[in-house]
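job 3f2a | input accepted
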Amino acid sequence: MLLHKNEILNLLAEEPEALHFAALLRAFGGRHIKKEMKRLIDDLVKSNEIVRLRGNRYTLPGADTTGTVHGTIAIHRDGFGFVRPESGGEDIFIPGKQINNALHGDTVSVRAEKSRSQRGKLEGRVLAVVQRANQRIVGRLQQSKKGALLIPEDLRLTSFFTVPANAVNGAVDGQQVVIEVTTWPAGGRPPEGKVIEILGWPDDPDVEVQTVIRKFDLPHRFEAATLAEAEAVPSRISRDDLSDRVDLRKRPFVTIDGETAKDFDDAVAIAEEGRNFRLWVSIADVSQYVKPSTELDREAYLRGTSVYFPDRCIPMLPERLSNGICSLNPAADRLTMTAEMLFDRQGTMLESRFYPSVIRSTARLTYTTVKQVIVDGNPAALGEDQMLAPHLLQMKELALILMAMRRQRGSIDFDLPEPEIVLSLTGQTEAIIRSERNLAHQLIEEFMLAANEAVARFVTAQTLPFIYRVHEQPDNAKLTAFRDFILPFGYSLTMQGERVAPQAMQQLIGEAAGKPEERLVNYGLLRCMKQARYAAENLGHFGLASPCYTHFTSPIRRYPDLIVHRLLKLALLLEADSQDKRARRELERISASLAEAAEHTSTRERVAMEAERDIIELKKLQFMQGRIGEEFDGFIAGVAGFGLFVELSEIFVEGLVHISTLTDDLYSFAEPNHRLLGRRTGRVLQIGDQVRVRVVAVNPQARRIEFVLQEQLSRHQVGSPLPQETTDYPRIPIKGKRPSFKRR
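job 3f2a | predicted structure (744 res):
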């Protein structure tokens, strides 16, 4: 009997459930066609026309079978992946051999079951790719006689792409290019594409940035219609703009930002009233110029946020707005939304009110100058603006009060060092230094936190739809593992069942401050925390110990803040007249898409953070290429079965000491305590140990720096040694990924 694949496909299409191989045999004549049936079935599986399930059962791709879910797959550079179900719930682990031609970011259909080997967690296999994530891929071209290969820049795209000789389109070996995928992987064949853009040579700083832009698919050119709308916005405010606004132009507002800042979202002013402080936080009124459903609004929503690289910014709004009429430049009248708050000496907010306003910033101050005044006691640093010194000292006093109040209620402050990339005039990395964060930075941060919280409380009290900045409780399993891990170091973390109070985490951070374990504790706790996000429901902000929080203070660079400004204006209108039909209609329009906007802007924020980190890591690799052979002090930031992750003390670079280079003994990985233990000598290498390493290799393509251990400078004494172990475990480092830019 000759079988045809269409007969098998038709049968599977008629069956509501997957069929066992034996059932297929019976349907087409029995065991005498077993070899032919197996050959056909294998071919259909390889071509993705049917899907093989556990238990030797078969179904069509996308068939509605028990345990089948749709979701987005995130693939690790080592080949395995996780699928986040669209319907929510637990992520599904996908072993490398079960990914079945899916690529990172694809929407896939997955068969999920409880795993016996993964302690009951969900494990599955990809049944079919529902939707491809990326039609265009950026990477490095490697040519051969028969054509070329594209090695993707994104290490999570674990497959190379073939490029036929007639599709190279002028690109040469070693260049960074963008390809358009013409054929997706199937039946063991790699995907194929054609070159559509040549970016240039990978060591060109501009090419590096362009590569990251395309890798993360960042919108970076404004449409002509958007620019035309921006050009139509007046460069000066008119008399009509001032109607129904509180005139604050005589109040001494100042902006305080970094030396290189060009757009100024916020300005602050202060006055003492008896024993109380009155604080004004005025924010650029971007909503006055960016109206809903305009081209400016659509493009701002698409971008979601500005993206910051060491040498440039990809703005959310065109420069005519972000650096012009919306920027609170000194000695220029600007439209703002103001949060006016009165605080007592304990940091309690006694009253608050909000209103459209007009201000005229007195001075553009930098963090460096303000620090010289409020920390170093040098008012002369202000130059012609020395009359502002008393105001800055009042701001310092209030900021310290607010900081103490937040700590008392349990607000968590991870004061971790962050890297600052110093570039030469040609864009090359000259140095990686510790980014300064002094009292001037904290002063502005405290005032912005206070304004954000006050706005959130005001709108929420009116029971109106709103967009919140939320931060949920830390992951319980991670917290429990971390609590057990820090116990030998003499630390404890108080938990109430499966929950932890912010005060308990803040107390632990305080206990470790200034000690060798400080970074270990901070990174470990940070790794337990969930990522803050935007939501249309108020879930509170765990990290700030705030029951009600939002983002109001940066509408030039964050779209959620623009939404908050629009909602705040509507709340003010409805507070004045609850029957305002126009305000009600506009509120209904915004609220209909609020949940979708929150999810979209959260996603755009994560993409921006990944892109910013990626370029920072690339700059670190470039810097270390010139340091091969040099020695540095550092500390062990993570331990795995295959080696140690060492972070250098002064230049904020991390590299791997592979276990094969530890030649003094044979080491095994003690997973629960995150140690490497010498079987013969009993030598212990663990997180937090101070070490000295030598740089031996830098691989920009693999995003890896390799060290060898020169000496162990110090080791924590943590009680009796562990019993010797002989089992190698998968990598489970306790280390936090430090963000390139601070986002709360």
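job 3f2a | Residues 71 and 680 are 48 Å apart (CA to CA).
job 3f2a | closed
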